[in-house]
Batch of 3 targets.
Target 1
Amino acid sequence: MRVRYSCQFIWFDYCARHDVALRVPGAANTVNRRASTRRSTTKLVSDARRLAKELLRGRSEERWRHSRAVAHRASELAITVPETDRPLLVAAAWLHDIGYVKPLRKTGFHPLDGATYLRAKGWSPRLCALVAHHSGARFVPIERGFAPLMAEFEFEDGVVTDALTYADQTVGPGGRRMTVEYRIAEAIARHGPDSPNARARIDRVPYLLAVAERVESRLAEIRSR
Ligand SMILES: [Fe+2]
């Protein structure tokens, strides 16, 4: 089971890095159907990677390195989500921070700006909502007055949201791996003790720690099989 998952992650990662789409010559229908599904799922990841690269690389190397590492981390965590949701998770990881890019800024709240941009470009509502709500973002808008705009994106309380948040919360700004506790402290120090992020910590920090506990327990359960 673990070997099959690993091969799939390597496949996602390879396709994303090299923008590969499978080419399978006409054989049995089942094979073609599988190939077609795989083509569309790997295309989602490679499209997401391409857009993230286009928007982030050159504008913010640090943010690009972070997004790349979060996508890689999400690939590793994909075993904790249903197989059909794995490309969605990895694609959302590539795109989760594009809202920091200047031309996309509308509210200045990056999860919301990223999600709004993706929605306007026709990305799926689920992917847009994952970007809008990554890393407990819904606890911050109340402080910043963006709650009605955030409400346009439905919060998905489930394993994909957890995996995306855990991936983001275990990778620092430059792409360095860190614990969730260190990442929370680092972010509060970086944004400042009076920042909306810091003020939202009363609700957001327990949420992030609970996400970490859930994801780590899913990983432990999978590894014990
Ligand atoms: Fe991030």
Target 2
Amino acid sequence: MITGFGDVTGDAKKPFVSPVPTRNRPIPKTIDSTRHGPATGGMLISLILTFPPVCRRVRVVCISDTHELHRELTLPDGDLLIHAGDFTFWNHTAKIEDFNAWLGELPHRYKVVIPGNHDRVFKQDPRCRAMITNAVLLINEGVTVCGLNIWGSPVTCDDAAYGYTTREERARLYASIPKDTHILITHGPPYGILDREPGSIHREGCTELRLAVMRLCPRLHVFGHVHAGYGTCHTERTLFVNAALLGWTCDIENMPIVLDITLQ
Ligand SMILES: [Zn+2]
């Protein structure tokens, strides 16, 4: 397991910038977004991050749970594409190869991908990592892009994917996330945040991940897995994005979520 940050920009020797100091702030017990309409393009959100710049402005395009329908997408261009897992449905390597080829056709300068519970072949056969050549693949590890420290994990709490089956195992994993993480990408949502169908009392998020997010306060947390939780919401310190694009009909029903991050 790698818990430090790698580098794809040549900036690795620069000191990592730190988010503004953490203070203990109460956050609501649960958070849900308003629903967004059918996809006609990207949904744009502006986000200002208050730490010294490496790049002045970064456009982040967030998608998740494309389940082999990636070629049906028309994605907005951007500096950084994030896919939060479940790019396959049945774990077939041919679909992974096609996903990787599709990634290579996209114009985004940087692409960061994590597997989801449907992509468990990456756990079953670690050699599959070599199939993703057109993006940075994160499996419980980090990378620095444009001065943004990103950490990603495919682990979910309800599917025993990637071997972290107990609460204690997940707590230990999330304790290894570096404190200076700006963007957290997990396949599953944290408990109580965009983790249920609107109106349902059944929440599917992970309580250990929720505790980690409250402790770390990343500026951005991107996830998917609970398709019905698609949308955005925020606390004072963290913007949460459930970027799951597949809907009940098993078609692409939601639009990519686009963030313009201004670094001050
Ligand atoms: Zn999914």
Target 3
Amino acid sequence: MPLTSRQSGPPVPPPVPPMPARAPGERSAAAPLARLRADPRQAVQQDWIRCLVCAASFRQLTNTHLRSHGMTADEYKRQFGYNRGRPLM
Ligand SMILES: [Zn+2]
């Protein structure tokens, strides 16, 4: 949908999304999300789990966080190919 208002005047910058948290010791924030989605087991490490929606990392991936993406843990697991019984931590 094209933006038709604001033809004149200063441009309004889009809202800046929050920077995703990075895993400890990881240098590049941009890269690995696609790779992790391709192999979701890589997103689950001993000390952290990476959210495959927003790339933030956590000690565990909570239902509260997944709800912020509009999905349940079951939906998350199904979407990214985790076993249903696998804990997200
Ligand atoms: Zn997330």
